[in-house]
Amino acid sequence: MHRTSPELSSKKKFIFTVIVLMFTAACILLIYFAFAAYRSYPVYSYVKSSQRGWSGKAHQADPELGVAPIPNSRGAEVYPIGDDIPMRYDARGFRVPVQDTGDTPKAHPRILVLGCSFTYGSSVLAEEAYPYLVGKDLGGVAVNGGVCSYGLAQMLILARKLVAEQKPDHLIVQYSIWLINRAMNQFAPTYSSLAPSPYFYDGDGLKLHAPVFATLSFDLPFEKFSNTRTRAAEFAAFLLEVGFPMFIHDDYNIVILKLKEMLGIVPAPTQNAEKMVTQVYGEIAQIARDNHAQMLIVALDSESQSAAPVPYALFPQDAIVVDAHQAMLDKLPIADEAHYEKEYMHWRGNPPELVDYHPNAKAHRIIADAIVAKIRSMQLSPPAAGR
């Protein structure tokens, strides 16, 4: 009777184990790629439907800011209805009118404005946004440092760098509740791929943490697929060029991030919003004082009523606050949601459809008027206690 040798039996077991492991790994990969394809289809459909987004390459990953403008770049904001809104960044990465010559006027007052898309002027031309209007109305020049999806963390980083560099007469910084929320989150709001951003964490006071990894969003050819074709072959190409690279990159980095968090290498974001407001606006105010700039805090909201009251008590004692949101409400016949949306948001088509909630040109005009009125009133009679 033939007996299998122990050595041969061990080899068979080893080979069998390898085959089982390879088969298991292949099944896991197959399931993962199937799930990645499933997750890619809504992104593909979004790109196809010409929903809100961008065309052109105007932004890039940044190790400090998460996302940053590309100097001397052009692009456009895309909408489901009507024309796109063209945009341009100058050599320093500030938003300027598309037809700008590139020569920065030396006129004064010089105004530096920091904020998110509300300051950048999403859905309006650069010359319709409140930073440009304030500079024009005061006979000076405004530097628009607003960037879409930015929060309070990016604003502080830019203030530390730009105030000394630009030497503004006035430093205008936005206050909105979502700026605080974004600075307590590791990721910025995007249309598709993850975009890590700097955030605050608890330490000796609040500290800034760099983006946890670099976004892949701006290296993927989304725009290549913004056409009306929906063939299976094109979706396959989308998977290979966009879907699979995006989800593999994001999923891998999320796994690494979770491991680092478990090991205590990466700290969790702070949840102390009040401390953040006090510390960050306080530091920006000190930066302004050190550089002989007058800081103004412009309060903006997107609701028909003041859902997030302006936290005057948390600002520096000498803070000059412009409640621009209230100025907008004061211009309405009735301060309700219907009137607010109709007057201050973006409507297109026939019948009109709401395509974007950012302030429209009319709203930016009111915001600018409120800021200019405050600056002029201070020039005539400086307010007591800064308010």
Description:
By secondary structure, this protein is an alpha/beta fold. It has 2 domains: 1-48 and 219-265, no CATH class; 52-212 and 267-386, Rossmann fold, CATH 3.40.50. It has 10 helices and 14 strands. It has helices at 6-48, 117-120, 130-137, 152-166, 177-182, 232-262, 273-290, 324-330, 337-344, 361-380, and strands at 53-55, 59-62, 66-69, 74-78, 85-88, 110-114, 141-144, 170-175, 199-203, 205-209, 294-299, 320-323, 346-348, 353-356. The strands form 5 sheets. The protein has a 5-stranded parallel sheet, sandwiched between helices. Helix 1 (6-48) packs across helix 6 (232-262), helix 4 runs parallel beside helix 7 (273-290) and helix 8 (324-330) crosses helix 10 (361-380). The termini are far apart.
Helix content: 40-55%
Major β-sheet annotation:
5 strands, parallel
Average pLDDT rating: 90
CATH class of the largest domain: Alpha Beta
Separation of termini?
102 Å
Shape: globular
The count of β-strands is 14
CATH topology of the largest domain: Rossmann fold
Structural class: alpha/beta
- In spatial order, strands of the major sheet run 7-6-8-11-12
Estimate nothing, just give the exact number of structural domains: 2
Query: Could you state the CATH homologous superfamily of the largest domain?
Result: SGNH hydrolase
Q: How big a fraction of the residues is strand?
A: 15-25%
Number of helices: 10
Over all CA atoms, what is the radius of gyration? 25 Å
CATH architecture of the largest domain: 3-Layer(aba) Sandwich
Detail the poorly predicted runs: 382-387
